[in-house]
Amino acid sequence: MKKSIAALIMVLLLSTFWQALATASETVWFTDVSASADASSKQATVTGKVASGAGQLVTLKVVEPGGQFFLDSVKSGDGGVFTFKWNISAEGKYEVHIGAENSSTPYKTSFTYGLAPSPTGAPTPTPAPSAGPGLGSGGSGAAASQAPSPSPANIVRVTEDKLTFNEVLKEATFNLETGAEAHIPAALLEKLAQSGTGLNLESEQFTLKLSVQTLRDLLDQVSKAGGGEVAVSVNKVAAADMKSLLELAKQRNYAELKPGSDLYEFEMKLITSGGAETAISAFDHPLTLLLKANGLVAAKLAGIYYISDAGELEYFGSMSAKGWLSGKMSHFSKYTVLEYRKTFTDVPAGNWAYDAVTEMAAKHIVEGISLKEFAPARKVTRAEFAALLVRALGLSGGSASFTDVPAGKWYADEVAAAYQAGIVQGLGEASFKPERTISREEMAAMLVRAWSVLQPQAQPESAAPPVFKDQAAISVWARDAAGKAAGLGLMKGRGASAFVPQGTATRAEAAQAIANLLNAGN
Asked: What CATH number is given to the structural domain containing 267?
């Protein structure tokens, strides 16, 4: 009996010992792990949960069939969920090693691509090999290989070592070709934003500039989502689809449209740590887009345009320098370079104002009174000319206290912006007379002030002796402006050297004056 009791005690003691030993050596760090490959997208996915919950650094090391390593890391999301996705090409077995903070033994699994169906792996007790460069230290997805490794087919990871920095401009540039999707980790967004450095995604045909403020906005969205990364892709729209959209646009705008580049579709999305994707299509702070023209379009008529699926056009910018066009955009979609040749039946080719009206219509500074008519002889009001100058110079904001410019009027914002820039002044105390027809001497004064805004470093010289035979008829306050406007080529006289200072200005003359302003010095 005593021997039986002693034996039972020994069994219980050994059982307790082995259970404690197993618990100590087999801490469960990961659950619900799945590793697989999708042949249609040529993409591998590893998902799972880390026991320590959200906000934990999870590292990934993949040994590819050829012996190369792929390294990446993410922060776990709600419930400890994590997801890794990357593109693959080589057929064979992929060994997967997953690590976590405070875990000395990585979770190991594997999957097969191309040779057999991809199984969901199970942990193996075999000790893991060395993690390799970057694993467990917050690596950002760069491939570390023992031999040259093929780059992913369409997903590229933006890492600090792949950036080119311009310390003077405070910009970092990453090369992004069409058809690729750039993944920008939250850690890099934060580092760039904190250092006041913007991010450029560029190719030989386009440059997309993300300002520091935009990076902060994106980082805020990633933080609210519990971690993750931002993905940006640029794809060319098929030529046949582009042709169909341009046909719709021609019909809607009654204009001849000539493509000056491919049609690109820009997309951005937020990918959470758990793998959920949310499209980001609008921005609180505009992004700068530069597109390279193909050289087959007239520079003065070329612009960057957004094209909707219904053929609607939205103008975003014009030629900046050396064949590149620049514009600010507040939303993503399809963009291209177009030569926009809008013709009006009452301003035919050969009309003295044809070139100016066509150019200003292409820049969307002037518009017709209908799809086909411009009304070149119609008089222009002070508010209308102020609005033209504001559009031409791209001004916005400001305030003015004119009692005859109520906030509800269409020109209220334009007059305020022109006043803020010093282009317009009142007539008497707190009065602007917005709907009064503008005189030629008033137009000259506004043009010279606008020229100074456009070229703040330059100083126009006054015309020294009077150049107009009706010089004495020019109001004293306007004589200097009239002389400068003539000297700069902003305005010309009417007829035989007469300025006609009190004469009213027409829509055709206004278009010509704005064209002269924008082309001054070119």
From this structure: 2.60.220
Distance CA 521, CA 388 (A): 20
What backbone torsions phi and psi does residue 401 show, to the nearest 5 degrees? Answer: -110, 35
Same domain, 195 and 260: yes
Report how many domains make up the chain. Answer: 3
* Domain stops at, among 111, 136, 151: 151
Q: What is the pLDDT of residues 415-451, one digit of tens each?
A: 999 999 999 988 876 899 999 999 999 999 999 999 9
Q: Please indicate, yes or no, whether residues 287 and 432 belong to a single structural domain of this protein.
A: no
Tokens coding 259: 């493509």
Per-position DSSP letters for 338-358, written without gaps between them: EEEEE-BTTB-TTSTTHHHHH
Q: Within this chain, do residues 182 and 131 fall inside the same structural domain, yes or no?
A: no
Task: Say if residue 223 is in the same domain as residue 194.
Answer: yes
The predicted pLDDT at position 26 comes to: 40
For residue 398, the model assigns a pLDDT of 85
- Counting DSSP H helices and E strands in the chain, the numbers are 10, 22
Distance CA 471, CA 501 (A): 9
What is 269-285 written as a DSSP string? EEEETTS-EEE--EEEE
Same domain, residue pair 386 and 489: yes
Residues 89 and 187 in one domain: no
E strand spans, 186-227: 198-202, 206-210
Angle at 312 between CA 306 and CA 318, to 5 degrees: 40
Specify burial of residue 47 (Cβ count, 10 A radius: 0-12, 13-18, 19+).
middle
* pLDDT (tens digit per residue) in 10-34: 434 434 433 443 333 344 578 888 9
Q: Are 384 and 411 in contact (CB under 8 A)?
A: yes
For residue 176, give Cα distances in angstroms to 40, 288, 384, 403, 435.
23, 16, 43, 52, 51
For 108-135, the DSSP string reads EEEEEESSS--PPP----SPP----TTT
Instruction: Mark whether 198 and 301 lie in a shared domain.
Output: yes
Q: What is the pLDDT of residues 254-283, one digit of tens each?
A: 999 999 999 999 999 999 988 899 999 899
Distances (CA, A) of 269 to 155, 175, 404: 13, 19, 47
The whole-angstrom separation of Cα 360 and Cα 379 is: 17
DSSP state, residue 237: P
**Domain span at 456:** 354-519
